[in-house]
Amino acid sequence: MIGVIVGTHGRFSEELLRSTSMVYGQLENVVGVTFEPGESVNGLVDKFKIALGTIEWSDGVLFLVDLFGGSPYNAASRIAAGYENMDIVSGVNLPMVVDVLVSRSTEQLEDLVKLAIRAGQDSMKSFRTVREIQTEEEL
């Protein structure tokens, strides 16, 4: 199974996983890691290593982090650089986490990364644009 670690600034990862459980149900083999004010990137690397010890990741690990180039991304990069079966996707959001959890039992890590990016991008929509498309389709 592919393990998932959500790493964010502040408690966002914990709340995101709590929200994910409202949509998805019981979460398994997923852990949230917070980066709190005053902590160092080295401390965050240690937190990620501890998180790895709590999940099963024989098929790989996908880190979902909030900001590309932010401390969670940089800390995860230090770990992932040493493993072929780890990757990181930035811009984590609720649709991304749900889609990853739904598909991780059938997808390989590389395809799961593509799915996560597509889910994140596809979740951004404008009400007016969607309404205009629907109106055009009705004509």
Key attributes of the depicted protein:
17% strand, 139 residues, alpha/beta, 6 helices, 4-stranded parallel sheet, 4 strands
Task: Walk me through the structure.
The chain has 139 residues and is of the alpha/beta class. The protein is 51% helix and 17% strand. It has a four-stranded parallel beta sheet with strand order 2-1-3-4, sandwiched between helices. It is globular. The mean pLDDT is 96.
How would you summarize this macromolecular structure in one to three sentences?
The protein is an alpha/beta fold and about 140 residues long.
Write the layout of secondary structure elements.
Elements: E1 3-9, H1 12-24, E2 30-35, H2 41-52, E3 61-65, H3 71-80, E4 86-90, H4 94-103, H5 109-122, H6 127-138
Parallel strand pairs: 1-2, 1-3, 3-4
Helix pairs in contact: 1-4, 2-3, 4-5
What is the percentage of strand-forming residues?
Answer: 15-25%
What class would the helix/strand composition place it in? alpha/beta
Rough outline = globular
Radius of gyration, CA atoms, in whole angstroms: 16 Å
* Low-pLDDT residue spans: none
Strand order of the largest sheet: 2-1-3-4
Largest sheet: 4 strands, parallel
How far is the N terminus from the C terminus? 47 Å
Number of strands: 4
Helix-strand pattern: EHEHEHEHHH
Mean pLDDT: 96
- Compute the number of helices: 6
| Helix percentage | 40-55%
